Amino acid sequence: MERRTIGAAALEVGAIGLGCMPMSWGYTESQRSGESSLRTVHTALDRGCTLLDTADMYGPFTNELLVGRALKKRRSEAFVSTKVGLLVGDQHIVANGRPGYVKRACDASLRRLQTDHIDLYQLHRPDPEVPIEETWGAMAELVAAGKVRALGLCAVGARAGRRRGARLHDLTLRQLERVQQVFPVSSVEAELSVWSPEALDALLPWCTSRGVGFLAAMPLGNGFLTGTLTPGQGFEPADIRARHPRFTAEMMAANQPVVAGLRRVGARYGATPGQVALAWVLAQGPHVVPVPGTKKERWAAQNAKAADLVLDRRDLAEIAALPRARESWD
After folding, report:
1. C-alpha dihedral (308, 310, 316, 322), degrees to nearest 10
2. pTM of the full predicted structure?
3. Which residue(s) pair with 151 in the sheet?
4. Structure-derived torsion over alpha carbons of residues 52, 238, 247, 253, reported in degrees to the nearest 10
5. Which three-class secondary structure string do you get for 142-193?
6. Is 230 helix (H, G, I), strand (E, B) or coil?
7. Which one of 51, 102, 176, 298 has the largest count of C-beta atoms within 10 Å of its C-beta?
8. Alpha-carbon distance 286 to 283, whole Å?
9. What residues are annotated to the active site?
10. pLDDT in tens, 81-105
């Protein structure tokens, strides 16, 4: 599989990563299986998907434990990315960016992951009560201590902290400029997909101009772009899609033309809609790494094959002409 470079630290990863979150958190709880998830991680590694993306909040904690089990005998084959900065309560999630907490959290992640270093340590969300420079400074100390190899920042949510009339990623861009003065940013992780292309406007250009890697979260549109979901199928209460404005029965039906367009392009190559969606993300730049989440071996293997699909100008123009994705508050 093609290799790509993650930012300032010049760390090499496979062209496609593996998002481990669905194995423990956020998606269909009844379909989770520890043994199946272990096989999924191994399948991804076997096919060159070396970047494994997790976070201490997924579970919480159980996702890192799972990744640690999977890598017990294969740590040298993997590029491990985990995140810090969010705490999960019974009914809420809060940020914690205090330097002392960040250092303790890193040590805990290292124990759960059964490793002596984390390849990429990402700030999941800044703490509004702590200057981001202080949080980032503590993370930089972890690099100096040899516990972490590189630092990354996750973009804030779609509506968090937005000023009236501001672009989607303006807040993240301001934060990036601040932390860059403290220690080099190696990567930015943000949503990027055919139906959520907003990062192309300013965030991806910021990364490109500075040689910073870009991890494309949710490149399959929370599973919608695979073409395997049916309008009105319903989701389990704990599934994040049960409350997502694009996953009401009405909006899933309204957005079918997006999937149909990906299917038309894929038919020219014998590829699935999901593989076309991943190839589109890969086409956005040599430093862009899509990180599709999955918990099943078959999907991990199918996603890996997307690295071999190269879209031409006609394909990209056809995808660009697809209708904008709709959501229930449009």
Report:
1. -20
2. 0.95
3. 121
4. 110
5. HHHCCCEEEEEEECCCCCCCCCCCCCCCHHHHHHHHHHHCCCCCCEEEEECE
6. coil
7. 51
8. 8
9. 58
10. 999 999 998 778 999 999 999 999 9
